[in-house]
């Protein structure tokens, strides 16, 4: 069971099936929040054996629901401790991605306009109306960017920042697709905003999916301190599974080299296993922020809805 964005190469799944004399079925269940809700509501009769897609913004909520079995996979010995946020090993890290502001290189270079280096720069008149963000109530990257501002400015300081950002003409879209493909000038070339909240891997995706070969990415990410929020995605074994041994083997498989090497090209995120080869486009164009913003999962669980509601009052009403 997973969110809708989960993807894995057919050959990788076949490898597991042959090695374990098993057949794997995938149940995509909406976005990360919706999929987790579905898993919680079906806890008495689990719909799957393994669940993938809880990220660190939902981690505490998932653990408090008590729907996962503890499993200390031997593969965890190879994964950096910084990704292992559940000391009880009910949820094990699989991948990570950074939500950042992406910008249209041509727009800034043709106007000789400096790239903003931090949150405060975005309040300057030079950047009025140039940024589109996603609504954190309906968008995962929108929520991640909101959390980055909470991490940087604190609570309630983040609200004053958003008031000022609104006065400087920030645009809001309901979801990533609208923000990126309609508002952002760097994807369609026609949108009104040359800056968008997206992912640090989006520039690599621009090159990979370009209609004609490109020698450079048309976009890049702003990766200054706190400007990006790191999302870590986890896998867990659902309590009540009728295939506990096979479920454990599949978790091991997701943390091993073959699956981890498949992650970047399939889901445009980074594997948590060090030393895994990356697509050339990732190496050239996908930046990794050295100082991403961070909040404790417990603080997010306690304040998520409050922060979103307050943001809605300040920005949308």
Note the main attributes of this structure.
single chain; alpha+beta; D-Maltodextrin-Binding Protein, domain 2; 9 strands; 39% helix; 15% strand
What does this structure look like?
With 317 residues, the chain is an alpha+beta fold. It folds into 2 domains: 10-96 and 231-277, 3-Layer(aba) Sandwich (D-Maltodextrin-Binding Protein, domain 2), CATH 3.40.190; 97-229 and 289-315, Periplasmic binding protein-like II (D-Maltodextrin-Binding Protein, domain 2, 3-Layer(aba) Sandwich). It is built from 13 helices and 9 strands. The radius of gyration is 20 Å and the shape is globular.
Largest sheet, in brief, is: 9 strands, mixed
Structural class: alpha+beta
| Helix/strand order, N-terminal first | HHEHEEHEHHEHHEHEEHHEHH
Percent of sequence in beta strands: 15-25%
pLDDT averaged residue by residue: 95
Number of helices: 13
Which bin fits the share of residues in helices? 25-40%
Gross morphology: globular
- Report the end-to-end length measured between terminal Cα atoms: 37 Å
